[in-house]
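Quick one, T. Sequence first:
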Amino acid sequence: MRRHHDDEVPEAEIHEHDRGLSYDLPVLARRRMIRLMAGVGAGLVPLVGCSADDTSSPAAADAPSSPSASAAGSASSAECATVPEETAGPYPGDGSNGVNVLKESGVVRGDITRSFGDSAGGTAEGVPLSFTLTVVDAASGCGTPKRGAAVYVWHCDREGGYSLYTEGVADENYLRGVQETDDRGRVTFTSVFPGCYPGRWPHIHFEVYGSLADATTATAITSTSQLALPKDVCDAVYATEGYESSVDNLGRLSLESDSVFRDGHDQQLAVVKGSVVEGYTATLTIAV
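Structure tokens:
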């Protein structure tokens, strides 16, 4: 049986060594203070960054269309805010906790559904998910795309396991990949919808680097955060074959109770469109 644990699960359910090397309570304290200060000074100083639904952002201009859509994020909010810093968890694969996949040939890719290299050959199964992240310059108020930056993403499979770490898939490296942002600050990854394991809301981890060279040497991380997926889409996906364990796990959670997203998720909740038959597309603008 696989162990499904992350450093972001509730306090009573984890041991100290499971928190991951990036776990740091002062980060959360700083985030709360920043939010408080932003609220007090809202009338004096503009916020920095972009929400997922800011129609003036580079990502919104190219948001994929689909017959059905989840209005994720704050539909009425056009405020800008930097993406919150979050823990990378115990399964980053960036060298901070054991294996470093970023230095391996083949990690720079758009399709992350398959493992790469000689020792791995598995394919992650599940409902198709394509997600586009747009990186923008916070100092410009979301107006300037971060061309030539790099984004490393990773997430669990439909059963809640992480490649490189979880028993049964430790020899795989699927659902991990790096890309350089284009002229509009965008990267798009082809993947599958992640499952929901005990104690964590469905999410995708990402790290932003200043350049592809920085990413592939795992140095100088600009930002570490997580993308959240909307509940209505999760409910639809988890009703399909292969996601059975996710149903009960999601039923015990909410974004408000999740250990990572409970102090605010406006800049992390993706806009998701599509269906279980055709697959889904997700978009999120990341201000750094």
